[in-house]
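**Backbone geometry record:**
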Amino acid sequence: MLTVTRLDADDARKMLAGATEKARDIGVPMCIAITDEGGNLIAFERMDG
């Protein structure tokens, strides 16, 4: 049996924060999307620049 752990909003925000920090470190503004296993959007952030 396969067990799937799903992301919740708090996990998605943590992932966005980490990705945003890395993008700032390398100096590349990005659009960051966090999706579930079906490709449905959970969280999105567009950096300025």
